[in-house]
Structure formats: C-alpha cells, structure tokens
Amino acid sequence: MSEHSPVSNLTTEQCWELLHAQEFGRLAFHLLDEVHIVPLNYAVDADRRLVFRTAEGSKLLGLTINDDVAFEIDEFGDEEAHSVVVRGRARQLERHELDALDQLPLRPWVDTAKFNVIAIDVDEINGRRFELTRPWTHLRPPHDHV
C-alpha cells in the first residue's frame, strides 16, 4: 500500500501551461561573484523561449557576462500551490528577431524605457504541485471590505 504524497511532480507540458498562464516571475543571474534575483514580467514565444525586456544596467551586464540563468514562477490558492523552475541560457535578441515578438504581451509594467529584449533558451524545466494544509488560516481575522 502506497502512502499519498502531498507533493507531486508536474509534467513538462503542465509546466509550459503554467508558464503560458503567468506573466510574472523571478530571474536568477550571476553578476561577478554574486547571484542576484529580480522580479520581472515575461512572455513565452512560439519557440518556447521566455522573453522579457530590460533597461541598461546590472541585469543586462550580468546576462552579458554569464548567460547561465534560472527563472521561477509560483502560484498558490487555498488548497494547492504550483512552482515551475527553468534553467537555461539568456541572450539579447537582435533587431531582426524582434518582429516575431510583436504580438506577445511583452510591455513593461513599470513606466520605464526598456529597449533590450532578452530570450531564455530553456535547457531544463521542472515543476511541482503542493497540496496545502494551512491550519493556521482560521486564526486570521476576517477581511473587512469598506
């Protein structure tokens, strides 16, 4: 008799479905001897790459020096949570590659100029589903909507 586990692995297709459904995640990248994690909005293109815009700065510098990155999304509700982690290589897209991205919802969420478009070519993708038991939630005060 097998014991039920509250944690299960997602299939590759389930991971991609979650990535398509989300717009916000966290990028981990190297900059010199440090690992940085930054939030960003992204889209998935037709080639199953994660793409995002960025301004000049430490993120672009770090990706130029070392293209090895990780990217993570997660979501949770009252009864379950999902997490997807991608590992891959980031590179700045050239001008001739940008036309194919025009139909993607790839606009900055913050009103700043972000002219550099980065694509993450995915080497590895994995995800997990968690059945949640959060017994302390009954201790929270009720939400008052005024």
From TrEMBL:
One Pfam family, short name please?
Pyridox_ox_2
What name goes with this protein? Answer: Uncharacterized protein
Species: Phycicoccus elongatus Lp2
